[in-house]
Amino acid sequence: MTDNLKNILSHLNKNIDQDTLLKYLNDELSKEEQHEVEQQLLEDPFNNDAVEGLQGVDNPLRLTLIAEALNRDLKKRTQKKRAAVAKRQLRPQWWLYFSIIILLILIVLVYLVVHKHAVN
């Protein structure tokens, strides 16, 4: 299986590592290991349904293509969300900062000049 399938499967169940899950899907585990994976999958109905759906795919090549398509779609959606968040963030307004510094310097200079004339 490709790494793309591992990307999709990585968040399915925190108790089962990706390689074990892939071996389970390809019937490469012993009966005891299969039983242990099934017990862990029964704890969460969503995970169980996801694995059953993956088991329903007959051709491993098709499973890889499905995983690649899901990864592309997921990447596309997350990029759109990131772009929207970046658009909403305030960007540094350097001209505003510079203007405030100049204004503060002018206020200090005016104060010093006024204070100097008041003392004389």
Question: Could you characterize the architecture of this molecule?
Answer:
Helix 1 (3-9) crosses helix 5. The protein has helices at residues 3-9, 18-25, 31-42, 45-55, 60-88, 94-119. The chain has six helices and no strands. The protein has two domains: 3-89, no CATH class; 92-120.
Main beta sheet, described?
none
Structural class: mainly alpha
In percent, how helical is the residue content? Answer: over 70%
What's the β-strand tally? 0
Q: Report the C-alpha radius of gyration, rounded.
A: 30 Å
Question: How far do the termini sit from each other?
Answer: 87 Å
Task: Work out the helix count.
Answer: 6
Outline type? rod-shaped
Poorly predicted regions are none
Could you tell me the mean pLDDT? 79
Compressed to H and E, one letter per element, the order equals: HHHHHH
Number of domains: 2
Strand content: under 5%
SSE order and pairing:
Layout: H1 3-9, H2 18-25, H3 31-42, H4 45-55, H5 60-88, H6 94-119
Helix pairs in contact: 1-5
Keywords:
single chain, 120 residues, mainly alpha, 2 domains, 0% strand
Short description:
With 120 residues, this protein is mainly α.
